[in-house]
Write a structure and sequence with these properties.
Blueprint lengths: L1 H33 L11 E2 L5 E2 L5 E2 L5 E2 L2 H4 L42 H12 L2 E5 L1 H9 L5 E5 L13 E3 L3 E3 L1 H7 L4 E5 L9 H18 L4 E5 L6 H6 L5 H13 L6 E4 L2 H4 L22 H11 L2
Parallel strand pairs: 5-6, 5-9, 9-10, 10-11
Antiparallel strand pairs: 1-2, 3-4, 7-8
Length: 311
Amino acid sequence: MGMRRKKRFSAKIFSVGVILCMFIFGGVFFKEYLGDPEENSIILYAQDMEGEPFLPSDIEISESGEESLPAEEAVEEGMTSELPTEESEEEGMTSETPTEEPAMEEEETKPEDSMNPEESESIKQDFFEDTLFIGDSRTVGIMQYGGIRGATFYASSGMSVFLLEKKTVYIPEEGRMVLSEVLERKQYKKIFLMLGINELGYPFESIEKKYGEVVEQLKASQGEAVIYLCANLHVTKEQSEKDSIYNNENVNRVNQMIAGLADNERTFYVDVNGLFDDEEGNLSMEYACDGFHVWGRFYTNWADWLQENAG
């Protein structure tokens, strides 16, 4: 009886020993070949059709907590991730007026000819208060660099008489509007209509008809406003000679048509070209930053000229 108990006890000890050995050596084996579960986690990933791994590091988490592909992966081939900007319809024209310009020596101003800058700014602000500018990229230049305060600008690169009811323009504190909505919001004292260059290329008869309709629209909706029909700025000689559409012959023809719409009672024609032309009647290279626009610094001259000649 005693011998049997000893054998059973020895068998139990042996079994426990075997189990302990399996546990110890098994743990070493799993740690050696599979890694410590506390230090290494198993990364699951899918594969694309070509067998390349798609790792979690390829996913970006947005602020909202949603997963998304990186920008370069999320955009279709041939597309950009940015919204398109409005492009100018003027051939060869830039959508923004350049601000950089070559250094120029400033002429000395005699004390008796100078004006207090604050006084000059105040006079300009008073003159253009309750004024509406309607125009294209040149008018945008006046808005940005002309130093005019108190006016409303319905102006955009590529604007034409054919787009006034199709192309919205952002009006501060009001939102995006077409022209008729701008005219409904208030009555203006002065209106400067500065369009015509983007219309070149359309049949001349359609330009004349539409331009006349716009003038009548302004007169009907703005009963108290004085309306200034502005000549289109000439292009440079180089631009004029190389282009069959955007040249000074066509610009002058449109300007002549615009002048014919002025009744000299409520509508008046004003022509700024004498300020910027060279001796041959082209936009002078002294002022031009490209074939169509003047440098940013000269828009203040343009605004001052309007104030002096539209009074």
